[in-house]
Specification:
ten-stranded mixed beta sheet, disordered N terminus, mainly beta, 8 helices
């Protein structure tokens, strides 16, 4: 009996427990239903009357205040708010036509207007204006007696702005910097954009996004593109929650709101997630070689870019040392008979003729400037000198061959044989016409080239240079007409029709002891009124002093000599020798002297337009024209206007200073 009671009691306890558990379960279930999440915001069923671009078009004049007095409604998706603190009391919304900045006098806007929320704005009574060309929507007010655009009061926000659905897709528009303008009506202004292959400039990579001091100043940092070497400002507030974060030191994708301040383009970040710079910096990633010919083939009439991860290699065939090419440019040829191209760096380079280079051309601009194909504005650190002292063998061709194959041969070395040179002047500066038996080509020399003032020969056995172009004109650029390159090899002068006056002795002694001897090597008496001596000092191409020989005496018989001296010369001359004073003898060892007959140069000492330093080199003596005398060899009876050959073989150097013992005799 006792056992039955115990069993009954246990059963009753278990029954009660079960009932209580069921009750609690029902209560919990009931409570859970009371705390279910409410449904999200729904579409309020509002239809915009205007697009954002149509609204912005109502503001045509910068600085104006255009109050909207019509039932204008716009709609858009929130693309930026104040969540990170980089924006203050403002939103950016955009639709398919553009974006706009909305001024709202409230904090924590991101709670009501998160990124991705659809909003509708009833614009009647609002005002549209611009902040230094960035269009904004707010209310017109008077501040300190002047009109001003102010934020919509917090108590009126709900009257003008109606929220719609959440989590609408926010996709930035992928652009290049060239797509963006500072026009107030630019379709990208106030919109979320994406720039690819950008990085912070080297000088900013050690910085934080903004000022974290007590001043909390906004800071401008600069990012640049790998491709076009274009740059733009990122402006961040000291109140942003990422102000103290170091900027990344890589390259990649940048998402931001595009804004302007006057004519300055600038970007506003929403947070650091907008900066995905996780790749190699420009020019630092691995590359493979691309043939220069394939780079040239990329250009089909409009600016393009080289593929990523590519470099070109070749030998420098231009010579920066003579200044006949821009200091940022060089001409690179891949090899003998292979293609070449102009490389323009973003700053002056130090690469020399004969340097072998690797140039990273990843995403670099391939374009034409005045018809000449180039890889443009390559960062200087993209080029690496591999070796030096390399040579490219020029392609020997006729001018007709060159003109027929110009586009393929552009920026390569060529040699043209048996060429006549002519032009409006007598020096290399500017355009000189090259003519062979097949056609004509322009040889152009910059006025700043070190050899620009030198006199070119009338005929050349060979002219060597690289092919270039200026608009529709095919051109040849030389590096140096003289040593060591000898790009212009003068043809031997024609034999004289008869011997004539020559410069037969030159003395540059101590102080003002300077003398010239003129000898009649011809067979007829010379009419000295036809002859002029001209001095060109310090490499000048204009005359320093001149002397018509008729002012000395009227004629000069065959075999006779005239001696000219500096007015202050004081040496005792041989018996029977008279010297006539002239400013032509105010020369130093680096000055040039020309003897002309009827305006035509018939003999020279030195080279007009060239400054050799302190002295001309004569018969291998680099100081022959300073404190020495030089005498024309006895077998020379005709003048020579080619100083290179004359100085090498027609003169004997007397190293004794102030030796005038041979003056007046031959």
């Amino acid at each position: 009996m006792t056992n039955n009671n115990i069993s009954m009691k246990r059963f009753n306890v278990w029954s009660v427990s079960l009932i209580l558990m069921l009750a609690v379960s029902l209560m919990i279930s009931s409570c859970k239903k009371n705390f279910d999440e409410p449904p999200g915001p729904t579409d309020p069923g509002i239809t915009p009357t205007h697009t954002i671009s149509q609204l912005k078009a109502m503001h045509a004049a910068s600085g104006a205040y255009d109050v909207i007095n019509a039932d204008v409604i716009i709609g858009g998706v929130v693309v930026a708010n104040d969540k990170s603190g980089n924006l203050y009391k403002e939103l950016y919304i955009q639709d398919g036509t553009g974006g706009i900045n909305i001024l709202l006098d409230a904090n924590g806007l991101y709670n009501s207007f998160p990124v991705g929320r659809q909003v509708y704005i009833k614009c009647n009574g609002l005002c549209i204006s611009d902040y230094n060309r960035l269009i904004q929507l707010g209310v017109k007010a008077t501040v300190a007696g002047s009109p001003s655009l102010e934020a919509i009061a917090s108590t009126l926000i709900d009257q003008y702005i109606i929220g719609g659905t959440l989590n609408n897709p926010v996709t930035p528009r992928v652009v290049t910097l060239n797509d963006l303008s500072t026009n107030m009506q630019d379709e990208y202004l106030g919109s979320l954009i994406q720039l690819n292959n950008y990085e912070f400039v080297t000088g900013d990579t050690s910085k934080t996004y903004a000022d974290t001091s007590a001043y909390k100043n906004s800071v401008n940092l600069t990012v640049k593109s790998c491709g076009a070497n274009s740059s733009i400002i990122i402006r961040s507030s000291g109140y942003a929650n990422f102000a103290g974060v170091n900027v990344p030191n890589g390259n990649g994708t940048l998402t931001a709101i595009y804004t302007v301040y006057g004519n300055t383009k600038q970007l506003i970040l929403r947070d650091t997630a907008d900066v995905q710079f996780n790749n190699y910096r420009c020019g630092q990633g691995p590359t493979t070689v691309m043939n220069i010919a394939d780079v040239r083939a990329l250009y089909s009439g409009s600016t393009t870019a080289a593929p990523d991860g590519k470099r070109i290699t070749g030998v420098v065939i231009s010579d920066r040392s003579t200044n006949n090419i821009n200091s940022q440019n060089l001409v690179l040829q891949q090899g003998n008979g292979l293609a070449g191209i102009l490389v323009r760096f973003d700053s002056p380079h130090s690469f020399n003729l004969g340097d072998s280079l690797d140039v990273n051309v990843s995403l670099q601009e391939v374009s034409e400037y005045r018809g000449l194909l180039q890889v443009n504005l390559v960062p200087l650190n993209y080029a690496t000198r591999v070796s030096t002292g390399k040579t490219i063998t020029p392609r020997v061709a006729t001018i007709t061959d060159i003109n027929s194959n110009f586009e393929a041969w552009e920026s390569t070395l060529v040699t043209i044989n048996d060429v006549a040179l002519s032009g409006s002047g007598s020096s290399y500066s500017g355009s000189v016409n090259l003519t062979d038996v097949t056609g004509s080509l322009v040889m152009f020399t910059s006025s700043s080239a070190s050899f620009a003032g030198q006199i070119y020969p009338a005929n050349a056995t060979a002219v060597t240079g690289y092919l270039t172009q200026f608009d529709a004109t095919y051109e040849l650029g030389i590096r140096n007409p003289g040593a060591p390159l000898n790009d212009v090899v003068a043809a031997a002068p024609p034999p004289p029709s008869g011997n004539d006056l020559i410069i037969s002795e030159y003395i540059e002694g101590s102080s003002n002891n300077k003398y010239l001897e003129i000898y009649n090597g011809g067979s007829a008496t010379a009419d000295l009124s036809l002859y002029d001596l001209k001095l060109y000092s310090n490499g000048n191409t204009s005359v320093t002093n001149s002397l018509n020989l008729a002012t000395v005496q009227a004629t000069l018989a065959p075999g006779e000599i005239i001696v000219i001296q500096n007015a202050s010369a004081a040496l005792t001359l041989p018996a029977g020798v008279t010297a006539f004073s002239s400013g032509v003898c105010n020369f130093n060892g680096d000055d040039a002297i020309q003897l002309e007959k009827s305006g035509v140069v018939i003999d020279v000492f030195g080279e007009k337009g060239v400054d050799p330093g302190s002295s001309w080199t004569i018969a291998g003596d680099a100081t022959a024209a300073v404190n020495k005398g030089v005498r024309r060899n006895a077998g020379i009876t005709a003048g020579n206007i080619d100083w290179t050959t004359s100085s090498a073989s027609e003169w004997t150097v007397n190293a004794t200073i102030d030796d005038v013992s041979n003056l007046g005799t031959r």
